[in-house]
Specification:
mainly alpha
Length: 294
């Protein structure tokens, strides 16, 4: 078989198995790079963070390959990341809701006896850097794949709620290398905390779907994603109490994880009740047409 015939056969297979191909490429790209980072034995540092962030480009790489092989519109797909005219209301939600969820989690944490250190707050301006970093490199870049590609294809066949769960499960499993690397935050979590994190991921997936279906903007989703990720910087939990002598207090860390998850879950449930699981939005929702695929 000639090289041209082989390429044609590969493209045909990808076109016939778009979601499977997307996940295979996404997982392979990320797991190989983050596996190498783990094997290098890098300690927590900016170098490690940058390399892990590079590995997190697996979802957009996977989406780009599938769109190209299937004859879709790459420019149309990427253009979703530059949709910013979504109205002041939605930008207020994308930027403000993370603070509401953080505040709710802090109230729960304190009410259940969690120790706090009000003097631990960083300079507020650091949030702008955290937001920009998170949008472009620290998580938001994933959304061109998960939300800007996988979600619309799933919603062509399934409800928005079912599609959110499928994306959420795929998204959670994709993080596995971080849990196997002892030098990452995820790697130090006990099983109970990991399970609560999975619940948060599934709830978050519903919130992300709601934002994407309501705006059609991957940029808004990425900013929202970065905002929620960045909220951990401003949680006033007493870090010395959470890890006395450098040894994590399992009970307190679990409390912090649970109280952070509860507002996400409640918000996700409220969205399903208000908007319905079929669309999770008031208007028509994005389908394969957003990437030029039928």
């Amino acid at each position: 078989m000639s090289d041209e015939s082989q390429q044609s056969a590969v493209r045909s297979w990808i076109d016939d198995h778009r979601l499977v191909a997307f996940l295979l490429i996404t997982y392979s790209f990320t797991w190989v790079i983050q596996g190498i980072v783990a094997a290098m034995g890098l300690e927590a540092s900016w170098t490690q963070s940058i390399l892990i962030g590079f590995g997190a480009f697996g979802p957009p790489v996977g989406a780009a390959v599938v769109i190209w092989a299937s004859g879709g519109d790459l420019r149309k797909w990427i253009g979703q990341f530059f949709v910013w005219r979504i109205g002041a209301r939605w930008w207020a939600i994308a930027l403000g809701l993370p603070f509401v969820l953080l505040g709710s989690g802090i109230v729960l944490f304190v009410a259940l006896g969690g120790p706090i250190d009000l003097g631990s707050f960083p300079f507020p301006g650091i949030y702008l850097f955290v937001l920009a970093w998170g949008t472009l490199w620290g998580g938001g870049q994933e959304d061109l794949g998960w939300r800007g590609f996988m979600l619309p294809l799933l919603q062509d066949r399934y409800s928005a709620l079912v599609s959110s769960v499928v994306v959420g499960v795929s998204w959670a499993g994709w993080h596995l290398p971080l849990f196997l690397n002892a030098t990452t935050t995820h790697g130090g979590w006990p099983l109970s905390q990991q399970l609560i994190w999975v619940v948060s991921i599934l709830a978050g997936s519903i919130l992300w779907t709601w934002m994407y279906n309501s705006t059609g903007s991957v940029l808004a989703v990425a900013v929202f994603h970065a905002g929620l990720n960045g909220m951990g910087v401003f949680h006033p939990a007493d870090t010395e109490a959470l890890a006395p002598g450098g040894v994590p207090d399992t009970a307190l860390n679990l409390l912090a994880e649970v109280t952070g998850a509860v507002p996400l879950v409640l918000c996700a449930v409220a969205l399903v009740l208000v908007y319905g699981g079929d669309r999770l939005a008031s208007d028509e929702i994005p389908g394969p047409e957003v990437v030029g695929l039928d």
